[in-house]
């Protein structure tokens, strides 16, 4: 038996923690994913994380125990998009395969 597809969209408005802004399963999940991709939003596939986030309602903030993983995903998304914190400099040495 195949599992249903799920999508959970997170947003951050600058206060407190990121919260669930979209949530759907099966066909609605496909629509959420397609809309995210069409708008340049990073889509990260992680069934375990998705299962944890699927327990939340739309508008609910992520729990404290997910702060680190979500922060790492946001930081990685910014890096992929070429955005860096103000006054940040590239560390010396290897970075993504560069010498």
Structural write-up:
The mean pLDDT is 85. By secondary structure, the chain is of the alpha+beta class. A hairpin with a 7-residue loop joins strand 1 and strand 2 (19-25). The chain is built from three helices and two strands; from the N terminus they run ββααα. Belongs to the type III secretion exporter family. InterPro entries: T3SS_substrate_exporter (IPR006135), T3SS_substrate_exporter_C (IPR029025). Keywords: Bacterial flagellum protein export, Cell projection, Cilium, Flagellum, Protein transport, Transport.
Question: Quick gist of this model?
Answer:
The radius of gyration is 16 Å and the shape is globular.
Structural class: alpha+beta
Give a count of the beta strands, DSSP E runs of length 2 or more.
2
- Residue fraction in strands: 5-15%
User: Strands of the largest sheet, in order across it?
Assistant: 1-2
Low-pLDDT runs of 5+ residues are none
Protein name: Flagellar biosynthetic protein FlhB
Family: Belongs to the type III secretion exporter family.
Pfam families: Bac_export_2
Function: Required for formation of the rod structure in the basal body of the flagellar apparatus. Together with FliI and FliH, may constitute the export apparatus of flagellin.
């Amino acid at each position: 038996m195949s599992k249903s597809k799920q999508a959970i969209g997170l947003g951050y408005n600058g206060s407190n923690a990121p919260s669930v802004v979209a949530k759907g399963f099966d066909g609605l999940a496909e629509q959420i994913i397609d809309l995210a991709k069409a708008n340049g939003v990073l889509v990260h596939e992680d069934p375990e994380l998705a299962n944890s986030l699927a327990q939340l309602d739309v508008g609910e903030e992520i729990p404290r125990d997910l702060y680190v993983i979500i922060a790492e995903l946001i930081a990685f998304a910014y890096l992929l998009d070429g955005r860096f914190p103000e006054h940040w400099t590239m560390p010396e040495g290897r970075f993504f395969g560069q010498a």
